[in-house]
Structures are given as C-alpha cells and as structure tokens.
Amino acid sequence: MNRKKAKQNYICLMLALFGAAAMSIVLFFVIFRFDGIAQTFHKLQNVLMPFIIGTVIAYILKPSCNFIEEKLTAFFSERKKAPVKLIPGLSVLLTMVLGLAVILILLIMVLPALLDSIYSILRLIPSSIEAASDWLLQYFDDNETLSNYISELAESFSTSIPSWIRTNVIPNIEVLIGNISSSVSGVVSLFSNVLIGLIAAIYILGSRKKFASQAKLVNYSLFGEKWSGRILREVQYTDKVFSGYINGRLIDSLIIGIICFIGMMILRIPYAMLISVIVGVTNIIPFFGPYIGAIPSFLLILMVSPVKAVIFLIFVLILQQFDGNILGPRILGNITGLSSFWVLFAILTFGGLFGFIGVIIGVPVFAVIYDIIRKLVKYGVTRRAQASEKTCVPQAENAKHETDRQ
Predict the structure, then answer these.
(1) Helix/strand/coil for 285
(2) Can you tell me the distance from the alpha carbon of 321 to that of 54, in angstroms, rounded to the nearest whole number?
(3) First-last CA distance in the chain
(4) Low-confidence residues in the chain, pLDDT < 70
(5) Hey, what long-range contacts does 251-255 have (CB within 8 A, 24 or more apart)?
(6) How many CB atoms lie within 10 A of CB 47?
(7) What distance in Å separates the CA atoms of residue 269 and residue 314, rounded to the nearest whole number?
(8) I need a surface site. Which of 13, 58, 71, 76 has the fewest CB within 10 A?
(9) Are 366 and 286 in contact (CB under 8 A)?
(10) Nearest 10 degrees: Cα torsion 245, 248, 253, 256
(11) pTM score, two decimals?
C-alpha cells in the first residue's frame, strides 16, 4: 500500500515538474518572441476577420431571430400544412432583411443631414473666428496688449486656413489621387470582409442550435457531468450578460439619439441631426459617453449662438439624467451586478488595454470575471466550512465519550 502511494506521489511530482517546465518554455517564448507572436496573431486576425464580423452580427441579431422564429412557429402551428422545416431558414432570412432595412433607413435619414451640417460648419469657421475675436476685443478693450494679441491670433487663424488649403491641399491633389488606389483596395477589403461576414452570419444563425448542442456534447465529454453543468450555467450567464448589455446599450443609445433630435428641433438648436448622431453614438460608451458627446456638440453650437449652446447644455444634462435614472435602468436593469466603482475600473482597464472595443465590452467582460471569482470564493468557503465541520464532529464525539467515562 505504501509502495503504491509512493508511486502515485512520484507520478504527481513528475507531472508537476513537467507542467512547470512547459509553462516556463511558454513564458520564455511569450517574453522573448513577443513581436513574432503579435505578428502571428495579427495575421490570424486578418484571416479570420470576416468570421469575426459574422459572429458579431449573428450574436447581435440572435434575439431578433429567436423572436421571429418563435412567432412563425406559433403562427404555423395552427395550420395543418405548416412548413415546419422552412421556419428556421425563413426566420434567418427575415432577420437579415429586417437588420439591413433598419441600417439602410438610418443611412438614408442621417447621411444627407450629416453632410449638410459638416459643410455648413466648414463655411462658418471664418465668420465664427471673426465674431469670437470681435467679442473678445470688446471685452478686453481696456487691455491694449491683450487686444493686440487677440487681433494677431484671429488674423493668423483667418489667413492660415485658406493658405493651408492653397499650399497643402491643392498641390497635394496628385498625391491624394495617387493614394486612391491604396484607399480603394482598403475599402474593397473592408467591403469584402463585411460581405463575407454577412454570409457567415446567415450560416451561424441558421446553425446556432446545432452549434450549441455540439458545444454541450464536447463540454460533457471533456469535463464530466458535474463540472460540465457548472460550465454550462456560467456560459448561459455570460450570454445573458453580453446579450442583455450590448443590445440594451444599442437600444438605449438609439432612443436617446431620437429624443435628442426631437428636442433640438423643438428648441430650434442648429446641427440637430449631426449632434443627435454624436450624442447617440457616444452614449454607447458607459459612464464617460454623455460627456464625450456633449463637449464637442456644445462647442459646435457655441460657434453659431452662445445662447443656444447654453440651452443645449441644459437640455443634454436633463436628457442624461433621464437616461441614467429612468430609461437606462428600465432597459438594462442591473444586468451586470457591478457597483459604480467596478464599472469605472472595467472601463479604464479594458479601454487602456484594447482601446474603443475594450471600452464597449469591458463592463460585461469584467462582470463575467467578477461572477466567476465570486463563485470560486463561495465554493472555497463552502469546502472549508464542510472540512471544519468534519474535523469538529469527531472531536465533539471524543469529548462526549471522555465525559461519559468520567
């Protein structure tokens, strides 16, 4: 028996040494071959980009596809000749058509107004600089030194922009035309990735139930019944957090953008469409998004009318209070279960590591990590408590026997 136990200990020791050596080799290559590993991952990312885009599109459209399939099943279940086999494919087709129609309608509604706003801003820049300089000169009229400095600064700005266009933009038109080929290739590559991604999204949506059953089978075969159930519950929680959070943020930002546009039209604030798009898009970013969208919008309106800029600032503050206290909780709820401190920590950490994508997905990713750590801690505490109970029971029985003998 002792020899068998010693043999088992020897095998465990050898496996531990082998694992430590393997991890050391992996760490060595990660540290000293980091550039090569980064290039490999970059190439792999470029190759898999269409499938990444397709997976993201399919994941965003999955709730709509499930809803449409459920309604189609309920509609055709009452009929005897129901096309049951066609329902999954029909639901995927309707989901893709609906998604593309929404994007197309938004582009048709938003793009012309955006272009008009941008052109008007470019035309307004010289007159805005002149108006601002006149106002500053009137305000600092008694200070001759500061007035001269403001006049020189305004003159340099008013002359530098047209001269920059004449000296830099116009002579470099040939260079810009020469670079069109590379830009076109980049646009073509992006278009092909999106197109292949849409096709991949159709296949992923159509086979989502098959993929889920295959993943469950692999999970059960690798980890057994006990741990596979735990992993499955964690995957379901992850899907709930990501799906609820991302779709909730998109819906919330769309509603805020529409309300912002309607309010600005009622208040007759300029650049309503452009600023509503800025406010809606930046509202996707949690915590910092409202401020990121409000500051440049305020500066744009300030060039036209300071009074309207102040009105817009008050309006957007009321709008963000409505979003943070009424609309956001109604749509998102407490889907992540994180406090404000951990939300801020997740945004700063993942944003610093992965940029804009990290800012968007940092909160749900950290919520999943936080949930896993919480469950592991709870599991460890439970095991410790059970172990202490097992050791306390024999001690209590021994004390009882000792008391009986006395």
Answers:
(1) coil
(2) 35
(3) 39
(4) 1-13, 15-16, 18-38, 78-84, 113-114, 117-187, 333-334, 389-406
(5) 251/331, 252/283, 252/323, 252/327, 252/328, 252/331, 252/332, 253/280, 253/281, 253/283, 253/284, 254/280, 255/327, 255/331
(6) 10
(7) 12
(8) 13
(9) no
(10) -130
(11) 0.65
CB neighbour list of residue 159: distance below 8 Å, 6 or more residues apart:
none
Range list of H helices, 207-271: 208-267
- Rounded to whole angstroms, how far apart are CA atoms 6 and 91? 61
Which residue, chain included where needed, has tokens 């096709």?
A: 199
- pLDDT at position 262: 92
Name, in order, each residue with C-beta under 8 angstroms of 37's C-beta and a sequence gap of 6 or more. Answer: 29, 30
| DSSP letter assigned to residue 105 | H
Record the tokens describing residue 142, joined without a space: 């008694």
| pLDDT, tens digit, 9 for 90 and up, residues 165-191 | 445 544 454 454 455 445 455 567 778
pLDDT for the residue numbered 27: 63
CB atoms within 10 A of CB 93: 16
The CA R_g of the chain, rounded to the nearest whole Å, is 31
